[in-house]
């Protein structure tokens, strides 16, 4: 599987992560199968935002409402690993909703993943080729 993202959108996500180096940033990826068209920042409401992320439920509900009204589809979450690498963690695997696309940024690198039962990484993720346009 492959997914596209514009370089300007990816640069914005990197800038968001750089602006909060002490905590994981997060948000929602919007678009259609195979193409990330938007990244909507959300508050990280995790109990330990330096090591984990949890998208603010209000952002999730608002996006679900927009989607029902004909808005862009939510593909999945994006987040940063301030002191790690751009690989899914065991904590990410515990939160993975099958079928969702994940984008992780860390160390100047971005990677994409599909959450799938029995995936190659932590039994929850398969890699997705990320084409930057």
Key features?
133 residues; alpha/beta; seven-stranded mixed β-sheet; 3 helices; 23% helix; globular
What does this protein structure show overall?
Helix 3 links the parallel strand 4 and strand 5 (101-106). The protein has a seven-stranded mixed β-sheet with strand order 1-7-6-5-4-2-3. The protein is 23% helix and 41% strand. It is globular, with a radius of gyration of 14 Å. The protein is of the alpha/beta class and 133 residues long. The protein has helices at residues 7-19, 57-68, 90-95, and strands at residues 2-5, 26-32, 35-42, 73-80, 101-106, 109-119, 123-132. The longest helix is centred in the N-terminal third of the chain and has 13 residues, at 7-19. The chain contains three helices and seven strands; from the N terminus they run E-H-E-E-H-E-H-E-E-E.
How would you summarize this macromolecular structure in one to three sentences?
This protein has 133 residues and is an alpha/beta fold. The protein is 23% helix and 41% strand.
Largest sheet properties:
7 strands, mixed
Low-confidence stretches: none
How much helix, percentage-wise, in residues? 10-25%
The 3D shape can be described as globular
**In percent, how much strand structure appears in the residues?**
35-45%
Structural class: alpha/beta
* Secondary structure tally: strands: 7
Helical stretch count? 3
Ends apart, CA distance between termini: 16 Å
């Amino acid at each position: 599987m492959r997914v596209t993202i514009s370089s300007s959108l990816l640069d914005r996500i990197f800038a968001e992560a750089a602006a909060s180096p002490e905590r994981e940033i997060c948000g929602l990826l919007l678009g259609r199968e195979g193409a990330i068209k938007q990244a909507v920042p959300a508050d990280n409401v995790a109990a330990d935002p330096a090591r984990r992320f949890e998208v603010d439920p209000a952002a999730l509900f608002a996006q679900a409402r927009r989607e029902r009204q004909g808005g862009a589809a939510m593909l999945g979450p994006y987040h940063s690993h301030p002191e790690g690498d751009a690989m899914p963690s065991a904590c990410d695997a515990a939160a993975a909703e099958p079928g969702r696309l994940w984008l992780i940024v860390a160390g100047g690198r971005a990677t994409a993943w599909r959450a799938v039962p029995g995936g190659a990484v932590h039994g929850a993720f398969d890699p997705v080729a990320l084409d930057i346009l």
